[in-house]
Amino acid sequence: MAAFHGFSTENLVPLPAEFFSDVLPSISNLAELKVTLHVFWLVSQQRGRAKRVSWDALSSDSALAQSLRAVSQLRPTSDVLEEALGLAVERGTLLHLISPEPGRVVSWYLVNTQANRHWVERQAGQRVLAPEASPTAQPTIFGLYEQNIGLLTPLLIEQLHEASAKYPAVWLEEAIAKAVEANVRNWRYIRRILERWETDGKESTSHRSEQLFDLSKYTTGKYAALFGRSGDSDGGDLSDL
């Protein structure tokens, strides 16, 4: 390890006191700590209100990538970054804002301050992912997934955005409900349900298992000798089953 020869400036990156008293003692994931500090550094260089940094900026940041490669050289850097951001959002250190744009959605990350929370709440038509969600808000597909399946990641957000443009909203809601009912809480399972409905038809697939068993098919006609007719002395009365 190369020796560090000291800082070249007296201009230090400001951090709130709660970071040291409340946040830092509870962080056990090194990648989460590195990403959180990197976000503080990036927003400290910005001016104006609602200082924020996008997923695109973080994922293309060479200094951050080098820092995360030191955490794990086997996993893709994007996976480590995604996990770290998810932990920081879940902890409440960062806010996650999904901003729709033509043909895509952009993920923004902000330090969780009162001013930033108020700014995010004023963004019409957008979705904030914070530790506490409004109980009266009508959940979007992003909210339904987060509440029932698990934490959203930038990759999942893109996939959900594409799915919401491709499938009816009710399909997405019912597919999520089926995943919860089956206790298979992942996007891959939900996507297979949607693809099957698209291929086979939702109604026919849904009702396939609900079709009544036609007993007469096996007690009359050419199958009767195999299964026994009602009233035959050598077979039970299937009509009583």
From TrEMBL:
<dbReference type="InterPro" id="IPR006343">
    <property type="entry name" value="DnaB/C_C"/>
</dbReference>
<dbReference type="Pfam" id="PF07261">
    <property type="entry name" value="DnaB_2"/>
</dbReference>
<comment type="similarity">
    <text>Belongs to the DnaB/DnaD family.</text>
</comment>
<protein>
    <submittedName>
        <fullName>Primosome, DnaD subunit</fullName>
    </submittedName>
</protein>
<feature type="domain" description="DnaB/C C-terminal">
    <location>
        <begin position="144"/>
        <end position="201"/>
    </location>
</feature>
<dbReference type="InterPro" id="IPR034829">
    <property type="entry name" value="DnaD-like_sf"/>
</dbReference>
